[in-house]
Amino acid sequence: MSYFADIPNIPYEGPDSTNPLAFKHYRADERIGSMTMQDHLRFSLAYWHTMNGRMSDPFGVGTAIRPWDSITDPMDQAKARMEALFEILQKLGVRYFCFHDRDIAPEGDTLAQTNRNLDEIVEFTKNLMDGTPIRLLWGTACLFTHPRFVHGAATSCNADVFAYAAAQVKKAIEVTHYLGGTNYVFWGGREGYETLLNTDMGLELDNLGRFLTMAVDHAREIGFTGQFLIEPKPMEPTKHQYDSDVAACHAFLQKYRLTDYFKMNLEQNHAVLAGHTFSHELRYARVNGMLGSMDVNQGDYLLGWDTDQMPTDIHEATLAMYEVLNNGGIAPGGMNFDAHLRRGSFEPSDIFMGHIAGMDAYARGLKSAWALKESGELESFIKERYASYEGGIGKQIVDGAVGFKELEKYALEHSQITNTSGRQEMLEGIVNRYL
């Protein structure tokens, strides 16, 4: 059955095309360096937004019109949505998808019934995958929607909730492994607190460390070798998130000796909410060996919440891809469209047009970033700017060969200091030349 019979396989027509159902810049087999564009970008569709999003907001009900809306049986609708997802993936030429456990299968009256529902949909999904190049980029567990998680999951004040969350993550890791997922994501949607007046922060952080350690142990036990990822976010829904940004997550992982098992899944909109740029978060993760995967959306700089818009900013995509290229690529992670359409873009064809716009933006960003990196202009400037650490007293500092006493002696003898310009505007102009 076709859910989008009027939508063709999306062709590449080039930058002069005005066809909204054609790529202008994304050409899967175009080689950028030694890799194809498809392999550089490793695009993925987010099941929760693409298939389940109703396009509601705090002031209005959902506007989405979807071909499976008329199906009333929850399990039949779940199967129809999965079939429709594969049609979207195939027509866009996207090879990966991501899901939360509760996205793809409805909850039952008990955890046992919920697991049976999930098993049925997972088996249905595996049959759809067979014979296609479509693969699971990552799975995760939804530990934030149900009222049981009102006070958190791994950081809940209720040990019964901790146990339930552990059982749910155990199952989610297992189905991710069964479907051949190459990563597993932890997003602590409610792992934080609203007020310290009722919070034992030390216990909550220790429990989160215990929880993630248990996950590592279970993955080993079942032979899951995929990459574990943490997705930072500073707020929303919880006022004070423990996983607020890369720096906080890195410090947490170091404290609980988990850095060997986890990397970061970074989202542009979350970076904005944390008061950072996307490239800052990517750079911080990269230089610490923690860059694992990306959620490529964009936030609205005028709005203080998670708008999760389709990524269409080529400048931002270029700077993001510059970090990815300097990281040596993003595999086994990818670039997941954790993005949803605007409320007014409610027709089924908008699903395709929105993803085309995002894929084209990142294709442009890849080409621009590659050319910029090949030129060496930024790296040459940075190398020259820090040249004082290549020899003399600077190299002694880097080598750990001096302390405060030696540096004081040096400063007394070299008290006349000359700085050079950082030339920010010139460098921003250089980047613009490549867009």
Protein model, in words:
This protein is an alpha/beta fold. It is built from 16 helices and twelve strands. The strands form three sheets. It has an eight-stranded parallel β-barrel with strand order 3-4-5-6-8-10-11-12, surrounded by four helices. Helix 6 packs parallel to helix 7 (201-222), helix 10 packs parallel to helix 11 and helix 11 crosses helix 12. It starts with 30 loop residues before the first strand and ends with a helix. The mean pLDDT is 97.
Which H/E pattern describes the elements?
Answer: EEHEHHEHHEHEEHEEHEHHEHEHHHHH
Write down the oligomeric state.
Answer: single chain
The number of helical segments is 16
Strand content: 5-15%
pLDDT under 50 segments (min length 5)?
A: none
Q: What's the main sheet like?
A: 8 strands, parallel, barrel
Number of E-type strands? 12
Q: Please estimate the helix content.
A: 40-55%
